[in-house]
């Protein structure tokens, strides 16, 4: 599967953002698939999580993003102090993130670790590549949730120990089990098995920026 020309115009997302939690410091939301996290460079790619939330929350900032095709949970700080606090947690890898994905093929083992260094593929943007010379350390843990022999697929939970661009997509592809519906890294067979990327940010855990209280949030999987 060849990636689309870059940059390209994103189709209009008609789905709404779901608010899971809100207080004076943070918003926790569930992003629909095919909605950008922040406006793209092309003027027609303005619709995004950031642009939709800013009218009611002018001081918000993003401390992490989800790919256009990925749905699921995000935390959005509502002011600079909260942003700095949560950004620091991301820097120190104190944020717990779990994704649910449906992979092509039947995984042999019930759990494991994917450890492949990732670098930008400068000749083929926006793709990333596995590179043992220049790539940054990237680690993903997986555990099998169920196997579907009839559809030749495996549902897994993926825990991010690092947060590289396209990490889950390229790690699972390199592992031999690309995410179904992925237009960038999957085989044609795996891509055409679903009209969407079968990847959803399911769980997010962090400390509240004001109270320091541990918080855990869940976003139901839509597939």
From TrEMBL:
Q: Where are the transmembrane segments?
A: none
- What is the protein name given in its UniProt record? Ribosomal large subunit pseudouridine synthase A
Cross-referenced Pfam families: PseudoU_synth_2 (PF00849)
Ranges where the Pseudouridine synthase RsuA/RluA-like domain occurs = 25-172
What family is reported?
Answer: Belongs to the pseudouridine synthase RluA family.
GO BP, one example?
enzyme-directed rRNA pseudouridine synthesis
Family annotation (Gene3D superfamilies): Pseudouridine synthase
Molecular function terms in GO for this entry?
RNA binding; tRNA pseudouridine(32) synthase activity
The species is: BD1-7 clade bacterium
Q: State its Enzyme Commission number(s).
A: 5.4.99.28
Keyword Zinc (UniProt): no
Q: Lineage, please?
A: Bacteria, Pseudomonadati, Pseudomonadota, Gammaproteobacteria, Cellvibrionales
Originating gene: rluA_2
User: What keywords sit in the KW lines?
Assistant: Isomerase, tRNA processing
